[in-house]
Automatic annotation (TrEMBL):
Keyword Ribonucleoprotein assigned: no
Organism for this UniProt entry: Microbacterium psychrotolerans
Name of this chain's protein: ThiF family adenylyltransferase
PANTHER family in alphabetical order: ADENYLYLTRANSFERASE AND SULFURTRANSFERASE MOCS3 (PTHR10953:SF102), UBIQUITIN-ACTIVATING ENZYME E1 (PTHR10953)
Biased composition (Low complexity): 259-272
Amino acid sequence: MAFPPLVEPLAELTDSERTRTARHRVLAGFGDVAQRRLAAAHVAVVGAGGLGSPAVLALAAAGVGTLTVIDDDLVEASNLQRQVMHRVADVGAAKVESAVRIAADLSPTTVVRPVQAVLTSANARELLAGAHVVVDGTDTFETREAVAAACEDLRVPLVWGVVQEFHAQATVFWSAPPAGAEPVHLADLYPPDAGREAPTCAQVGVLGALCLQVGALLATETIKLITGVGDPLLGRVLVIDALRARADEVPLRPAEVRSVSSAAPAAGESAAPQDVAAGSSDATAGSQSVPEPARPAPIPQLTPAEALAAQRAGAVLLDVREPFETARGVIPGSTLLPLGDVLAEPRRVEASRVVVVCQVGMRAQRAAAALRAAGIEASVLAGGMDAWSRDAAGATVRA
């Protein structure tokens, strides 16, 4: 459903701004009024990284009047693969300063308020106060929870996205939506503390081009909310699988509504939101109202000591990290085969019992699932090499 616009329009655009935004103003149903609403809007973007960078670019180019950009970090060379707001010359400088430069280059009328600070539950409400919409482009769940709690208190919509490896999710949370719409909160998708153990992009990687796609999507949702044009993602989660060029939509209802619904999913629903939160990319909108199929048995999670015991008993330790990672050290006696090769042909692993190893455990889960589907008994070293480094049961890691 379309919502009323969040922002009253500016009285008038400058001549130069009318020229710069001419392609917006001729859009059917958008026009000059919507453009003036953007000019009067204040958007807070939390995080100037993989998602925040393209979102800031798109929002500044769109003519948003004020952008508050919050990030405490400095630009690193490894950021440049996906954080397109920064340049090689920015390495070592504050990320928020890139937002100031880029907005001036794109939209001279946009005012950027750079805030180089760590957003916490203690200061989130103060940092986000005054924004019509908040965009969350952060990469830790603790920060995401602080942002969501502040938006709930401030009663402002939160445009939210997450990207990891080749997969992404995007949605809108809002504790006080217009009449006729149900409030939806972060906790309805991720129960409290559910994502605390999720690996970082530094550990499992992220496709840079997908960050641009999702950051632009977050900017589009923000523009729709400000102007009242279109149907925002409130109550819906867009799930993107870049490898299959597939985008699916999963309904998201408040937890208290789900708790009293029938066990079978309603027509048009698919995987439960918690399944989406756990990284499922197979949920599809439009599935029929049928009972859920039986879930496969959980993949055994072994401690370092248990993994060593399994190896002594004849199991193969299969390290599915990339060569540049295994060059830094492996568990003695491991077989090395990158995840992509395992997924392409699981039967290349000539063993009846396998313990799969990666850096933190996420890639190992995917490999183990593929191996089990191929009839191979597979378990996972819980916590991966990070856990091994902390507690290798007296063993040494071969460098």
